[in-house]
C-alpha cells in the first residue's frame, strides 16, 4: 500500500449524527484518495459514535482507521493519533467542519511551497447556505485578527481546527502537552514550542473548511470558559508578550463590569427567540467573552474549573 502524504486527524466525542456528513466531504477531495488517510480518535463517546465509525470504516473509499480513547483528554487523544499516523504531514480538522473540495490539496501545495516544513493555517468560514443570523461556533475570539493570504501566521493562529503540521516536527517537539490546566488551548502551547524551534506559519486561502450547524449558547460558553481558564497556564508556559497583548483586552477588569447583566440577558433572549433571532445576534460575542474572562479569573485565583461558567 502506498504511503500517504497526509494523515487527516479528527478528534471526536458524541458526534454520531455529524460524522457521516463530515466524512462525506473528505471523500470528494481533489487530492488523490490514495495519497491521504483519515485517522479518527473517539474520546469516550456515549452515543452511537463507535457504531457509526465501525460501519464507515468497513466500506470507506479512503483508508480510514479509528481508535477509541477513554482518557477524556484531548491532548492525549491527539498524541495517540500522531503516534499511529503514517503521513508526512498531519492535518488536524474539527469534527463539526465540512472540508472544502480543495482543502487537502491546498494544504499540500502550501507545504511544498514552504519546503515541506511549515504550519499551514486554513480558513474557517460559515457555510454559504447557512442563514447568516444563525448562532454558530465563533471559531476566533480575536475576530479582528484577519489572516493575510500567503503571508506568515504567528503561533497564536495555529489552532487545530484546520491546520497542517509536519509530523516529524511535532514528534521532535514531544507532541501535545497532556496538562489539564492547558485543556482548551493545548494546540497553542504546542504551536509556541514549534515556533520557538524554528517552524514558521503560512496562511492558505484555498484551504477552507466550513461551519455548517447551529451551536448551543451553553456549549459555547463552556468552551470559552475553558479557553479563558487555559490562558493563564498558556501565558505562564510560553511567556509570550504577543499572547499577552492579543488577549489583554479580554482580560482587562473593566471589560467585565457588565458581565452580570450581559450573561442573563443573552440566556433570556436565546430562550425566548432562539439563535436565529435578530435581537440575539447583538449579544453572543459579549456573552462568550464574559465566559472567557471568568475562566481566566478563576485560573488566576487558583479556583478549580467550573462545570457551569
Describe this structure in words.
It contains 10 helices and 8 strands. The chain is α/β, with parallel strands linked by helices and 309 residues long. The chain folds into 2 domains: 6-211, Spore Coat Polysaccharide Biosynthesis Protein SpsA, Chain A; 217-300, no CATH class. It has an 8-stranded mixed beta sheet with strand order 3-2-1-4-7-6-8-5, sandwiched between helices. Helix 2 links the parallel strand 2 (36-43) and strand 3. Helix 9 packs across helix 10 (284-300). 42% of the residues are buried.
Give a quick set of tags describing it.
alpha/beta, 17% strand, 2 domains, eight-stranded mixed sheet, globular, 309 residues, Spore Coat Polysaccharide Biosynthesis Protein SpsA, Chain A, single chain, 10 helices
Number of helices: 10
Termini Cα gap:
49 Å
Under the CATH scheme, the architecture of the largest domain is Alpha-Beta Complex
CATH topology assignment of the largest domain: Spore Coat Polysaccharide Biosynthesis Protein SpsA, Chain A
| Sequence of secondary-structure elements | EHEHEHEEHEEHHEHHHH
Total E-strand runs: 8
Radius of gyration, in angstroms, nearest whole number: 19 Å
Low-confidence stretches: 140-145
Q: State the fourth-level CATH superfamily of the largest domain.
A: Spore Coat Polysaccharide Biosynthesis Protein SpsA, Chain A
> What do the pLDDT scores average to?
85
Question: Quick summary of this structure?
Answer:
The chain is α/β, with parallel strands linked by helices. Helix content is 40%, strand content 17%.
Amino acid at each position: 500500500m502506498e504511503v500517504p502524504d497526509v494523515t487527516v486527524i479528527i478528534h471526536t466525542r458524541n458526534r454520531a449524527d455529524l460524522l457521516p456528513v463530515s466524512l462525506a466531504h473528505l471523500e470528494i477531495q481533489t487530492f488523490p484518495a490514495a495519497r491521504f488517510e483519515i485517522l479518527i480518535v473517539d474520546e469516550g463517546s456515549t452515543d452511537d459514535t463507535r457504531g457509526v465509525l465501525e460501519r464507515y470504516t468497513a466500506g470507506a473509499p479512503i483508508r480510514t482507521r479509528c481508535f477509541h480513547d477513554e482518557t477524556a483528554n484531548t491532548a492525549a487523544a491527539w498524541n495517540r493519533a500522531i503516534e499511529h499516523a503514517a503521513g508526512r504531514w498531519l492535518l488536524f480538522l474539527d469534527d463539526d467542519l465540512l472540508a472544502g473540495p480543495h482543502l487537502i490539496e491546498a494544504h499540500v501545495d502550501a507545504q511544498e511551497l514552504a519546503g515541506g516544513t511549515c504550519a499551514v493555517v486554513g480558513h474557517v468560514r460559515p457555510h454559504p447556505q447557512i442563514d447568516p443570523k444563525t448562532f454558530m461556533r465563533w471559531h476566533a475570539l480575536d475576530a479582528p485578527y484577519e489572516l493575510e493570504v500567503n503571508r506568515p501566521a504567528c503561533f497564536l493562529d495555529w489552532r487545530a481546527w484546520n491546520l497542517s503540521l509536519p509530523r516529524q516536527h511535532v514528534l521532535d517537539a514531544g507532541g501535545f502537552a497532556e496538562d489539564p490546566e492547558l485543556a482548551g488551548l493545548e494546540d497553542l502551547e504546542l504551536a509556541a514550542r514549534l515556533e520557538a524551534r524554528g517552524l514558521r506559519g503560512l496562511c492558505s486561502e484555498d484551504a477552507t473548511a466550513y461551519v455548517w450547524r447551529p451551536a448551543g449558547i451553553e456549549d459555547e460558553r463552556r468552551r470559552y470558559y475553558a479557553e479563558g481558564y487555559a490562558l493563564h497556564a498558556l501565558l505562564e508556559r510560553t511567556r509570550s508578550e504577543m499572547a499577552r497583548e492579543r488577549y489583554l483586552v479580554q482580560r482587562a477588569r473593566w471589560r467585565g463590569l457588565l458581565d452580570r447583566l450581559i450573561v442573563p440577558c443573552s440566556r433570556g433572549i436565546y430562550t425566548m427567540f432562539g439563535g436565529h433571532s435578530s435581537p440575539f445576534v447583538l449579544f453572543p460575542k459579549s456573552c462568550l467573552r464574559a465566559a472567557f474572562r471568568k475562566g481566566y479569573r478563576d485560573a488566576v485565583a487558583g479556583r478549580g474549573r467550573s462545570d457551569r461558567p
